[in-house]
Structure formats: structure tokens, C-alpha cells
Amino acid sequence: MMALFEILLTSSFWVAAVRIASPLIFATMGELICERAGVLNLGIEGIMVIGAFSGWMAVYLGAGLWGGVAVAMMAGMLFGLLHATLTVPFGLSQHVVGLGVTLLAASTSYFAYRLILPEVTSPPKIEPFQPFEIPYLVDIPLFGPAFFAQTALTYAAFGTVALTALILYRTPLGLAIRAAGESPNAVAAQGLSVTGLRMGAVIVGSGLMAVGGAFLTLSAFSSFFFEMVNGRGWICIALVVFGAWKPGKALLGALLFAGFDALQIRLQQTPIGQVVPYQMFLMAPYILSILALILMSRRASVPAALMIPYNKGER
Amino acid sequence: MRLEPIANPSLARRLGFPALALAATVIIASLLAALAGAEPFGTLGLIVKGAAGSKFALLETLNRATPLIFTGLAIAVAFRAKLWNIGAEAQLYAGAIVTVILGTSALSGMGGFALPIMALGAMVAGAVILLGPVILKTRFGVDEVVTTLLFNFIMILLVSYLLEGPMKDPMGMGWPKSAPLDRDLRLPRIVTGLRLHWGFALALISAMLIWLVQTRTTLGYEMRAVGQNPQAARFAGIPVNLVLVKTALLSGGLAALAGFSEVAGLKGHLSLDLSPGFGYTGIIVAMLALLHPLGVVVTAIFVAGIFVGADSMSRAAGVPTYIADMLLATALLLMVLAIGLTKFRVVRG
Amino acid sequence: MTDTRPEAQDVVLRLNNITKRFGALTANDAISMQLHRGEVIALLGENGAGKTTLMNILFGQYTADEGTVELFGAPLPPGNPRAALAAGLGMVHQHFTLADNLTVLENIQLGTVPLWYAGLGRARARAKLARLADDFGLVVDPDAIVATLTVGQRQRVEILKALYRDARILILDEPTAVLTPQESDALFETLRRAVASGLSVVFISHKLHEVMAISSRVLVLRHGRLVGEVATRDTDRHALAALMVGAEITPPKLTPLTPGPALLRLRDVSTRDQGTAPGLKSVTLALRAGQISGLAGVSGNGQSALSDLISGLITPQSGGLELPETPPRWTPRAAVAAGIARIPEDRHKTGTIADFSLTENAILETYAAPPYSKNGLMNWRAAEAHTRHLIDTYDVRCPGPSGPIRQLSGGNMQKLILGRALELSPKIILANQPVRGLDIGAITYVHGRLLAARKAGAAVLLISEDLDEIIGLSDVIHVISEGRLSPEFERGQLTAAELGLWMAGQGFTHAA
Predict the structure, then answer these.
(1) Residue A280 falls within a domain, yes or no?
(2) Domains identified in chain B, total number
(3) What is the largest CA-CA distance in chain C?
(4) If exposure means fewest CB atoms within 10 Å of the residue's CB, which of A91, C99, C158, C511 is most exposed?
(5) Do C189 and C69 belong to one domain?
(6) Which residues in chain A are closer than 8 Å to B287, comparing Cβ atoms?
(7) A131 falls within a domain
């Protein structure tokens, strides 16, 4: 118990929690946008992989860090376009297409990796985003460094949440996206294109997922490893449900979740870690995600048209 | 643009689009090979040769197909009832764990009688693993896609723990693997001297049985009804949740047989690389087979052939083996599109 | 309405030879029509006559295969809802097109502000909405979430949506289907105000008395063709009915019967609310042998709960459901075993499985026992023989028992469902909206079967939103409102208007 308190009272723990949350925040916002428009995007896991890979590769080939982010985003949008084309105008199963996109995006990353670097045994490192402190605010005790001594990409993650919320709730576009996920007929009757809105949401959402993946290689680690996304995409889907499809709550969920994750890493170093095998700690994020799903299952206000393809002419 | 359902798709339509999908996959594969600096058709030729060019290659392909038939069946059965079991990987490992536990200690010395018990034990383990997500689905409405996916990660960590702890092979020189099964608790070869074990025969029999279940039994009828329209099924008096649970037991059990067959037939022990994603590849196998149990056998052999062939091609032509995964993901997406186009036509207005 | 024959230059809408085909079916066959400024025309026709298709073409949801549309003298580009809206066309769909998770104001603003604008301009929109509500007598709270509104309120939002966009032509597709007679009157009042202020209205309906009441001109569609165009004052209901179906309709005849004992009783039954649909509130009801009990009410007032309860889908939260032999567990299967034939409200979603064959659909309720299965093994031969018998006995027009049921027309699908249920010689028949969306031939057939079952001693519960159907067929009538059930009224005891008051919730002794 004492060990727990000691961990919670160190600011490095909170710094780690926010860092762990950052990729999840991007990807969760991406998934949230897709689902708000009515499309479940199970391509998220693979799109995070392609984002991690392409961003890193771009930087390795000399594109610069922000260039890497842009490349990752475009790669994600490309796979988003594939997903959207198959699920929206063609109305194919969002489950199967999503899994297919995940498999394709991941294997494309690995194939390209081997193509560009055929011989290497350990992947080359790049110079990642460096944290920079925001004066004064960083001095807030305990939480200051967590929120104000991070890399630019983490600040961008928080900005993404604010922007997503602003667009969804305060603009005509957000209104149309929310309506598209609830009642596509209402959207069509007002002269808007359901297909356009949904495809746009999936493409932009996928771009954000890829930036989430790129965070792993450009900010958290400095290299690309196979299996580095490791189920984070699926966790983000759980976070969207946990956040009841609302950006603010989803952000809270991501921070909470990352807090637990940071905690389990530190608990491994304590006497508890001597007794409990490390695999049990590593399981925690996945078990937490399942618990979150159960907890929110009865309360969640799922978009009414989620996973239901829209075909005009059908009544 | 709008989709218009076709009441009676013609045979040309039903065969033409899938054929086009396969052709497109081949073209994309050639392009990928060219991208890797290899000669496109030569590369494809090398894959075919590597998969079926010799007796050895063919047997290797069938061996690789065996677990894929089981996972493909598991997914075909579940998807038919619209139960999105993406956790065949976890169920496979659950089956493998039980196979090793029974086969290294409990049933030692029982000889051939032990094998059916091991298989049954494995099936129970796999079934139980899938039961959790299904109960969460029926009781709380939690989407089983995410839960079964997350279970895969939990299970592989559990296996890692077991292999470093309680199930560690004392003679393993520190490698994370289990003790080997007793010699007499292994699935024998079908033909002495050839590297193909009875697991393959068991897979074929399973496919046949599942086909009979789906077409001839009330359970098969119920599973299809629940998959097509749960609301109508419930109204008619079909116990929807019970049917989903039965489907889960069957599906989880089948996936676990893949673990049983790999351990008892091929590897002889449990390790972390027992399955290179057989559970996920099973989704491709099942979808390419249009969820038909007998079709699963064909597509599993096809998919296994691509993997085996790509391995040998990669050694010869230097194209990364991941071309196989890309090829199959492409085939999956194009096939789903092709099936969609057999049912709908795109019209203006 | 007074006759003010408009001049030719007042034409606001002109359709020229509109033709639309869906595969082999010609939904609209060279239809031409005109609408003048300040008039209400009625588009009359049976279900499937092509009314909705025609309006969807006008509105840009479909593209016509042939023909053109002119709005205010200018051609309307086909297949472009946005252009139709911008040209001043407003449509109130039969199935409301509102997003439940948004507020009234948000629904109305949807699509009216360019998507790339930064803000919504709510204040200005709110002011305009208040003015419109005032002008047309359409009061509704702009900040209410649509999910919480009643059907009548939702329709007001739909009309406001069109008015907010400055529509000069209003098209209303079966607008009264979900309203009480009093709400319909209020709607007509609103339409009169709209016309007085210079709007034009197309009123789509199959209800003759409404058409007579509101329109100045009637256009009749049959099988996709325009078969008649008459001034309302020059015609009457009988003539219109004959035009609409091609023959005089003979209403069903109810020969008096002495009712038998009650075969199913509900005593003080309450059930849970299901989302926004209310559950039952202390409902007491007796269904007697040889009697048709009609259940009138505006949709969404507890009909689903009552139907689900009798179907075995839900159980009472309190109170008792009594049968001669009450089963220990109340499930759909127990309901069928207790001799209840169930005709569900939605034959596509609940009644059948679209991709299943006729045979597979025919045994949905009975597959689990001989002759269709034994020891868990199906006997497809017996199932197919039974299906052939149903096809013959109930006149199901189909290619054969092994084709998918989705190929069947609504009427034939309903006949199979009817046969599936009636072949079990039921004691009780639950018919929930049994003729909705059917053509006259199928309606007559289904009603005939229900009357025959009544004569044979079955107790029938007929649930319908069509008050005319209830009044025509029922021995006794109940009205349901917000989950409460009215007392039992004898045939002819109350007029349609009096029933309408009950439907609007008046007369109930305790609050919901």
C-alpha cells in the first residue's frame, strides 16, 4: 500500500501516464469520429501500425519529424479511404472489412520494412520529438510536468480532443456527422450526402489513428518494432465505448487507463512485483478494457445507426 | 449511385465476381513482386512450386493447412450465427495448454486411449474461453469482437507465464517451452515415413461433421436463423441466447482442436510460437470459403500453400515473406467485395 | 374548399411524362401533372401504386428513367435533393426523417448552414423558428431532444423543417397515418394557413374522407399509372374508391355472433417501458371465443408492449396473464403451444427471415418437434410437403417452396405467415397491423381469413392504426393511450370522433 502511494506521489509517474495516454487519445478520437458517423472501424489496429511504420520511415529517410507525422496521417487516410469505400457506398460488413484492413495495413508495413531494410537485424533509430517545458505551468506541483513538460505531439493530442469536441458540438459539420450516425435518412432528407459525410469521417478518423501509431515511433520510442502496437487499437475501441462516444469522457478514459498502465509498470519494480509474475501486470490493460466495456454496457448511448449501412432508396 | 438488390443472381454473376477477385489478387501479387525487384510471374511460379512442387512440399502444405481447417471451421460456424469470434488464437492456445497438461502428466502411460480424452479436454478449454465473451454479449450486450480480440492478448501472456513458471520444461535449457508429450501420446503419422499426421484426417472429419450439423440438424437451422435475423428467430420461439452459447461451445472447441493437433501431431510441446496467427488467418480461410465447412478445407489448403510457397520463394527470390500476408488480406477484401457485388448491382439514381 | 380555378401562369410544379422502372416493375408510367399556386392537390392510390416513388423522384432521391420536372418554370436537375430543397420544395416523409439524438432546433438547422461554416448561428435560427411556429400554429420546444417528442410533435418538426427552408411547395406523404382524428384536424388547419399564405400542397393519402376534406383536385394513381384527375367537388368517395382500385370495394360483412367464453385474460397487467415506447399500465382485457376485439390507438402508445406480451416475448411485471392452461414459463414457444397464432407487425423484420426459403420460414415456429425434426435431426421432406400445402391452401403466389422469401410481394409473404399461424388451428389470434402496406386484394383476403377464424370460434385481437379498419371489423373496441387501456366499447357504441378523443388520451380515469 505504501508503495502505491509513493508511486502516485511522484511526478514522473504522471508524466509517464500522460505519455502512455497520448497515442491512445489520437486513435480514440479517430475511432470516435468514425463511430459518430455510423461506421465501426476495426482497421484501427493495422492503421496504427502503418502510421507507426510510415512516420518513422519518413523521418529515417529525411522528412523531418512533422513531415513524418504528415506522412503517417496520409498513409492512415489512404487505408481509411479503402475502408470507407468498401463499407460506405458498397455497404459491406464493417466487421470483416475492418479486420481485412488491419491485416492489410500491418502486412504492408512489414513488407515495406523488409523491402527497404532487407538486411538489418535491429531497426535504425531516429531522433524523436523532445519534450519541452511550458514555463511557469510546469512548476505546478505533481501534475505540472505531466501536462506541461511533454513533446509537441502530446500537446497536439490534447488539442485534437478540444478540436473534435468543438467540431462535433458547435459546427454545422459536426451536427451533420452526429446525425449521420443516428439517422442517415434525416441527413439525406436535408439534402446532405450520407455517403460523403461517412466517408469523410472514416478517412479523417483513420488519419488520426495513424498519428496515434506514429506517436509510438516518433515520440515514445525512437524506432519501429514488429508488434509494437500490440492491441492498442482494440483498447481504443473499448475506450470509445467507455467514453460513451463523447470526446471529453473518452479523453478521461484514456488518461485513467494510461494511469493504470503506468502504475502496473512501476508496481513491477516494487516488492509486489517479486511475488506476482510480470505477465499478470501486462495483462492488466486488456482486463481493464474488458471491465470498462462491462461497466459501460448498460449506460452507453450508442449511435443508433452504428454498423448499419445506408442505402438510399431503402425505406 | 445506389445499390439495387438482385433477386436471383445469375450463375455467371455468382462465379464471375469471385473469379475476378482472385484474378485481381494475382495481379496485385505480381506487382508486389515486381516492386521487390523480382520477376513477377517467376515469383508466383516459385510460390506454386514451393507449395505443391514436390511430395515434400505438398505434405508440408497439408500439415500447415491442418490447424487452419480447424480455426477456419471455428470461425465459419461462429460467423454463420453472426457471432464475431475473433479469438480463435486464444482458444487454440487454451486447447494446446490442456493437451500438454494431460499429455505430460495426467494421462501418462494410458497409451492410445488418452488421445481422445486429450482432444476432448482441449475442446472443453477452448469452449470455456469463448463462453466468457458470449455471456458478456448475451447478458450485458458487450460487443464480442473487442472482448475476443483482447482475450488473445491475455491468453498469450498466460502462456508466457506458464512456460516460464509452472509448465516450464526442466530440460529446456532456459527456452520458454513446455516439457514434451509422452511418445505414445502423439498423433501418429497417417502413412509411416511421411510427415503428415492424423490431425489432418481429424480436420477433414470435423469439416464433414460440421457440414452435416449445419444442413441436417435443428441446431444448424437455429444457428442460421439467429445469424440471419435474430429478431425473427426470437419471435418464432428460437432460444437465441442458448443457440449463441451452443455456437460458442462448438466454435471454441473447434479452434482448440487446432492447438491439440499442433501439439500432439506436429510440435510435441507447447511454445510461444506454436501459432503464427492461425486464429487470425482462420478468418480469411472462412471468408474465402463463404463460410461453407467443406469450402474451408479447400481454402485452408490454398492459404497454407501460399504461406509455405512464399517461404520457399522468399529464400529463392528474396521477396519478403510478408507478401503472403498482403496477398491474403487483399484476397479477403476483394472477395468480400465480390460477394457483395453478386447480391447487389450498382445503378444510377 | 372554395373553388378558385387557377390560371395557367400560376403553375408552380409540372411533371412531364415521368417514368421509373425497378427491374421488371414499372413504378411510374409516363405520369404528367401540374400543381398551381395556393392549391392542395391529393395524390390518391393504394399501397404500391407509385405515389411515394413519384415524390422521391421529385425530391431527387431517385432519378427518373424518362421525363422531366419543372419547378417555378425552371427545369429541376434530376437526382439532386439539394437542388429540390433550394428550389422551394419541402417534403414531410411518411417515416419521419429526424435524428433522435439531436434537439428540434438542431434537426431543423441540419443542412441549412454550409458545412464549412464555423458556427451554426443558433440565435437567428431560434428567432426564425419562433416566428414560423407562431404563423402556422406549430408550437414545439426548440431545445427538446427529438427522442422525447410524441409522434404528433415530431410531425410538427417535420413541417417546420420545410417551412424553415422557405418551402413554397409542401409534399406530405400519408401524414395522418400516425395521428388521432383531432391531430389530423389540427394538421389540416395548418395546411389551410399555409395555402392561404401562398404555398401549394401535395397531399398523399389512401384515406378517402381526408382527401375529400382537404383537396381541391384529386389525382388517382393505380399500378404506376395516372388513371384519373378530377376536381374534388365533382366527385365523391365511391367514385374515387372505384378509380383507386379499379372496382367498387365491398367492405367486410360482420354477421352477429354470440361470443363464447374468454380464452385469454389480462388482469391488471403492467410491463416495463421499452426505451421511449411505453409499457402497459394496469391493463385488463378479455379475448372471447368468436369475437374480434379491435385495439385502436396512435402508434407508439403501448401496442408493441401488448403485442409482445401476448406473443410471449415479454412477461408481465405485475398482474396476471391467464389462459385455460397457463404455462410455467411465458415464452414465444409457450405462446404458440397455448394455441396463440401470431401475426407480427413487421413481416420483414419479425415475421420472416429474408434469405431463408419459404420452407425454412414456414416451419420457424414448429421446427423443433415432429414431423419436422426428430432427435435434433431435420426432416426437410416433411417441411417441404407442409410448405406446398400452405402455398396451395393460402394462395401464396411464388416460384416454389425453395426460393428465398424476400422475392415475394408483401401480400404473398403475409399469406404465408397467416397460413403458418392458422394451420395450427389456433384458439387465439393476435393480428398486429395485419394489412399494413398490402393492396386491396390481399387486404380482402386477410380480413376474410380473420372473419372465418372468428366464425370458427377463435378469439381475435386486431391491432391497427387505421381506425376505419378497427371500426369495420371489430365486435368490441378498446383504445390504448400511453400504455393505458380504455374500457371495452361495443360495436357502434362510439363514433370515430369519440374514439379519437380516447386515442388522444381523454377519458382515462387515472394518469399515465
Answers:
(1) no
(2) 1
(3) 77
(4) C511
(5) yes
(6) 96
(7) no
- Taking the CA of residue B67 and the nearest CA in chain A, the distance in Å comes to 19
Residue A32 lies in a domain: yes
Residues C83 and C172 in one domain: yes
Q: Give yes or no: residues C328 and C275 share one domain.
A: yes
Query: Do residue C97 and residue A189 have CB atoms under 8 angstroms apart?
Result: yes
- Let me know if residue C18 belongs to a domain: yes
Chain-chain contact of A183 with C118 (C-beta, under 8 angstroms): no
One digit per residue, pLDDT tens: chain A, 315 residues? Answer: 667 777 887 888 888 999 999 999 999 999 999 999 999 999 999 999 999 999 999 999 999 999 999 999 999 999 999 999 999 999 999 999 999 999 999 999 999 999 999 888 888 999 999 988 888 888 888 777 888 878 999 999 999 999 999 999 999 999 999 999 999 999 999 989 999 999 999 999 999 999 999 999 999 988 999 889 989 999 999 999 989 999 999 999 999 999 988 988 888 888 887 888 888 888 988 998 899 888 887 766 788 889 888 876 543
Q: What chains are in contact with B, requiring at least 3 Cβ pairs below 8 Å? A: A, C
Question: Model ipTM?
Answer: 0.91
User: Which residues in C lie closer than 8 A to residue B5 (C-beta atoms)?
Assistant: 406
Nearest chain B residue to C351 by CA distance is: B232
Flag whether B305 is in a domain. no
Q: pLDDT by residue (tens digit) across B257-295? A: 999 999 999 988 999 999 999 999 999 999 999 899 999
Do C118 and C209 lie in a common domain? Answer: no
For residue A239, the distance in angstroms to the closest alpha carbon of chain B comes to: 11
Q: DSSP string spanning C336-390?
A: HHTTEEEE-S-IIIII--TTSBHHHHHTTTTTTSTTTEETTEE-HHHHHHHHHHH
Residues C219, C115 within the same domain = no
In a domain, C134, yes or no: yes
Residues C162, C39 within the same domain: no
Residues C378, B232: C-beta atoms closer than 8 Å? no
Q: Which domain holds residue A182?
A: 25-116+151-230
Q: How many folded domains does chain C comprise?
A: 3
Q: Cβ separation of B84 and A92 shorter than 8 Å?
A: no
* C243 and C288 fall within a common domain: no
pTM of the model: 0.91
Residues 103-162 of A with CB under 8 A from B: 103-104, 106-108, 110-111, 114-115, 118
Residue B168 resides in a domain? yes
Contact B326 A235 (CB under 8 A): no
The answer as to whether B203 is a domain residue is yes
Instruction: Tell me, yes or no, whether A88 lies in a domain.
Output: yes
Cβ of B320 and A95 within 8 Å? Answer: no
| Whether B141 contacts chain C with CB within 8 A | no
Asked if B218 lies within 8 A of C376 by C-beta distance, the reply is: yes
Chain A residues whose beta carbon lies within 8 Å of the beta carbon of residue C118:
171
Residue C379 placed within a domain: no
| Residue span of the structural domain in which C333 resides | 264-338+477-512
Mean per-residue pLDDT for B123-152?
92
B55 in contact with C, Cβ within 8 Å? no
Residue B120 counted as domain residue: yes
Q: Do A298 and B165 touch (CB under 8 A)?
A: no
Number of domains comprising chain A: 1
Contact B236 C360 (CB under 8 A): no
Q: How far is A244 from chain C (nearest CA, A)?
A: 13
What's the 3-state SS for chain A?
CHHHHHHHCCHHHHHHHHHHHHHHHHHHHHHHHHHHCCCCCCCHHHHHHHHHHHHHHHHHCCCCHHHHHHHHHHHHHHHHHHHHHHHCCCCCCHHHHHHHHHHHHHHHHHHHHHHHCCCCCCCCCCCCCCCEECCCHHHCCCCHHHHHEECHHHHHHHHHHHHHHHHHHHCHHHHHHHHHHHCHHHHHHCCCCHHHHHHHHHHHHHHHHHHHHHHHHHHHCCCCCCCCCCCHHHHHHHHHHHCCCCHHHHHHHHHHHHHHHHHHHHHCCCHHHHHCCHHHHHHHHHHHHHHHHHHHCCCCCCCCCCCCCCCCCCC
In this structure, the answer to whether residues C162 and C179 fall within a common structural domain is no
